[in-house]
Amino acid sequence: MEAQAQGLLETEPLQGRDEDAVASADFSSMLSEEEREELKTELVQLEDEITTLRQVLSAKERHLVEIKQKLGMNLMNELKQNFSKSWHDMQTTTAYKKTQETLSHAGQKATAAFSNVGTAISKKFGDMRNSPTFKSFEERVETTVTSLKTKVGGTTHSGGSFEEVLSSAAQASAQSSGAGPRRAEGAPELQC
User: Fold this and answer.
1) Rg (alpha carbons) of the chain, rounded to whole number
2) CB neighbours of 154 closer than 8 A, spacing ≥ 6?
């Protein structure tokens, strides 16, 4: 009979539906008065033990906080440490390493492409500057600047680099736009 009784007893914990069935069952009619008193006593003891355990846990948590404060550890430091550890753990994953390698490779290719584009643009500007059209434009600007200098009264400067010509043109333009020489009152106006 004992083997048969053991076969009926399950060793696994109750599942949700089993707990509902047990909770809805009324076992109080099946218990003797003595068993009821024993269960009530056990219930009070369990509740007391739970209260004691909660008090002990609370005291230990307070003690933990005190020790951490003495060691200079606070919530922010713990968060930083946890974040650093998590970041380190993530960086050591295979997926992160593969992603990092892929992005690094893509960055190198993009850098090379931008470098090639920059070189091509520089070459095109160099080619453009050496083109007959640009040379013709440069000569016209130089002639205009020389003409302006002569009219304004500056010294003539034949030749010179394009930058010098542009600088001279800017100075001549600044002089003729208001910063030029003042005419004395009653003096006749000069015409060019």
Assistant:
1) 48
2) 168, 172
Cβ neighbours around 17 below 10 Å, total: 8
27/30 Cα distance (integer angstroms): 5
Q: What angle do CA 7, 10, 11 make, to 5 degrees?
A: 120
Instruction: Say if CB 128 and CB 134 are below 8 A apart.
Output: yes
- Looking at the whole model, is its pTM more than 0.90? no
The CA distance from 148 to 192, in Å, is 10
State the DSSP string of the chain: -HHHHHHHS--SPPPHHHHHHHHHS--TTTS-HHHHHHHHHHHHHHHHHHHHHHHHHHHHHHHHHHHHHHTT--HHHHHHHHHHHHHHHHHTSHHHHHHHHHHHHHHHHHHHHHHHHHHHHHHHHHHHHTSHHHHHHHHHHHHHHHHHHHHHT-----S--HHHHHHHHHHHHHHHTTSSPPPPTTPPPP--
- The rounded distance, in Å, linking the Cα atoms of 3 and 8 is 9
Q: φ and ψ at 31, to 5 degrees?
A: -95, 145
* Pick from 67, 73, 131, 176: nearest CA to 168: 176
Q: What is the pLDDT of residues 73-119, one digit of tens each?
A: 777 777 888 888 888 888 888 888 888 889 888 888 888 888 888 88
